[in-house]
Each structure stands twice: as structure tokens, then as C-alpha cells.
Amino acid sequence: MRISVITPSFNQARFIERTIHSVLDQDQRDVEHIVVDGGSSDGTLDILRRYTGRIVWISEKDRGQTHAINKGLRLATGEIVAWLNSDDTYEPGALALVARHFMDHPDSRWVYGKCRIVNDADREIRPFITWYKNLLLAKFSFARLLAENYISQPAVFWRRRLLDEVGYLSEEEYFCMDYDYWLRIGSRSPAGVIDAYLANFRYHRASKSGSVNKKQFADELRLARAFRGEHPFAVLLHTANYVKIVAAYKLLEVLGL
Q1: Domain count, the chain
Q2: CATH number, residue 166
Q3: Which of 44, 63, 96, 140 could connect to 28 by a Cys-Cys bridge, CB 3.0–4.6 Å?
Q4: How much of the chain, in percent, has pLDDT values that exceed 70?
Q5: Can you give the residue range of the structural domain that contains 217?
Q6: How confident is the model at residue 1, as a pLDDT?
């Protein structure tokens, strides 16, 4: 079973080699790693050239992260697809667990697992956020997903044929293209759950999530309202969660955590 991993990249020479190694060092045999670079000028291309033949990569101007991911998804040949940003990493053995899940559950269309938050030096940070998310993701619930985005993007995988049915990521969404996609596929099929750590999300000041961003959380609330359907109460909960999350992240920033 081939797994295709898409990595959008732009001026991430500081981290991208760690990302590449986390894919290439997996014990899953059939893995395709596609790096879609937006025309980096910081040394990223020198790193990518060293892995020519082991990864697929292109570098050209694009319209941003979501456009790059979609380009990679169109190039993908795997039955299972995912994207891993150029500062995030997979845990050892993660892709073998994903392949085993889809082989053991042929009706499963998408799956997620656990994800740690790490800093620039790969040390785990904010474990209380991870603990909270782990409580919520133990069993998939679309109503719960409407109430709060508890799924960590680097730990999500889906069958490529869903792209033909649901479409690609929305390039209109800058912060929440992942949440939009989880709602689109989650409204059709429940997610499988792998009770293991699959990935690490890197929190640093230069990343999109490197500071409190009320716009991101407001976009999530807007998307939840658009998908509320038979779950209007869940969206009321999301409104409360919006206030809670903005306050919590602001406190973390003030405390320097």
C-alpha cells in the first residue's frame, strides 16, 4: 500500500531536512514523498537537491501553502495521502501504523492519531494542550468536531479516492484549510482513530500558529456554522470554545509558554 506525503515548502531550510528524514526513515516500504517548494531562496533548494532520487520535488512560484498542497496531491500516486508541513515531523513507525489501519479496515476512508507539540529543538512543549486534545479524539464525533477543532493536521491520512468525491483543499482558506477539509470529509464518513502518536507539530514564532491569531479561530467558527446542519447546539458550543481558546492562547503567549 503506497502512502504519498505532500510537503509544501517556502524558505524552511532550518527545519525541512528533519521533515524529510522523518518520512524517509519510516519502516513502511512504499512511501512517496513529494516536496512542493514555492521558490525558496534560503538554502532549501540545496537541501532538496541532496535528496533527488529519494524524494520527488519541484520548486516554482505558487499561490501559497494550500495551492502547493493541492499541486502535490495532483502528483500523488499513493492510495493513501497526507500532507506534512516543512517544519513538522512524523514519529518513527507512524506510516506502518497508518498502512495497517487501512488494510485492517477496508471501509475506513480517513484516519487520525495523536500529535505532540514540539519546539525548535524538538523538545515537547504544551503537554496540557496535547492531553486535552487526546481526550477529545479518542472516538470520532462529527458533532464534537463542529464544536471544536480537536484534530491535529500532521496526524491525518485519507484515501486518495476521496479527492475525486470531495475535491481538493479550498484555496480560499488561509488558516483553516485543514478544518474545512475535516468537516467536508467528516460529514460523509466517520474517521478511524489510531491510539498512538503519529506526528509532531512544531510551534515557533515564524510559523502561522506562532502567535495568537483570532482570525484563525474566527474562521473555524465560520466554517462550523456553515456545516452545522442537524447540530446547531454544537455550533453554540463552538462559540463558547472560541472565547475559551482565544483567552487560553493569549495567556500562554503572555506567560511565554
Answers
A1: 1
A2: 3.90.550.10
A3: 96
A4: 96
A5: 3-255
A6: 93
